[in-house]
Amino acid sequence: MKRRTVLAGTGSGLSSLVVGCLQETNDTEPDESSTETYELVQFSAPTGTSDWAGHEERSGYLEFYGSTDVAFANLDFNYVEEERRDAVESFVEETEFDDEALLYIASRGPDTSYTEIAVEELETDAGVIIGTARAKRPQNGGGGGGSAVTYPSALVRIIGPMEAPERAEITVVDGWGEKTELVAEMQR
Does 3 reside within a domain? Predict the structure, then answer.
């Protein structure tokens, strides 16, 4: 048995995958894109300002890590709640970089109830990870929060098999509905 439970990316992604398996294939033009399975762990949701947030036109941030060492060199675990820090660090350590990819996705929310990142779609196409993620309130989060802007972030582990991706292109939607197209090359 694998060391962790595999989670389906989204309900629609899973149904697309099932539908794709039931459709006839076209031998003349193979489809190089595929819906990916992934695991997600919320990283942090600080208030105030974030290092990347100095640009008004940008509603999100993206990094693509190619190894455990690179991830640990770039991630500031001091932002992670202390009681969750070991679990988040383990998430990075358990990533099998030969078969999996690890993304850091961040956005912003208009109030303190926006503490999570949700992945809405995720696929690979010709070695490029393509997807959409958004800032959101937790399912049990209810209404509005305090008046501070938040910067929620998450780590997303894409589970193979896949063509070894070198680049990620993610559309990030912030809590106001503003979209930013982000591109990140794999950091080695």
Answer: no
Residue 109's closest CA among 53, 168, 35? 53
For residue 29, the SS3 value is: coil
Summarize pLDDT for 33-84 with one digit per residue, the tens.
667 799 999 999 888 777 776 655 678 999 999 999 999 999 999 999 999 9
Q: Is the pLDDT of residue 114 over 50?
A: yes
Q: Quick check: is 66 in a domain? A: yes
* Tokens of residue 35, six digits: 């819906």
118 φ/ψ angles, rounded to the nearest 5 degrees: -120, 135
> Which amino acid is present at 179?
K
Reported as a pLDDT band with limits 50, 70 and 90, residue 174 is very high
* Structure-block tokens of residue 24: 């006839």
8 Å CB contact between 68 and 133? no
Based on the structure, what is the number of domains in the chain? 1
Asked if the structure places residue 29 within a domain, the reply is: no
Answer yes or no: is 161 within a domain: yes
Expressed in percent and rounded to 5, the helix, strand and coil fractions of the chain are 20, 35, 45
pLDDT score at 94: 97
Q: Where are the beta strands (DSSP E) in 21-162?
A: 33-35, 37-44, 60-65, 100-107, 116-125, 128-136, 153-159
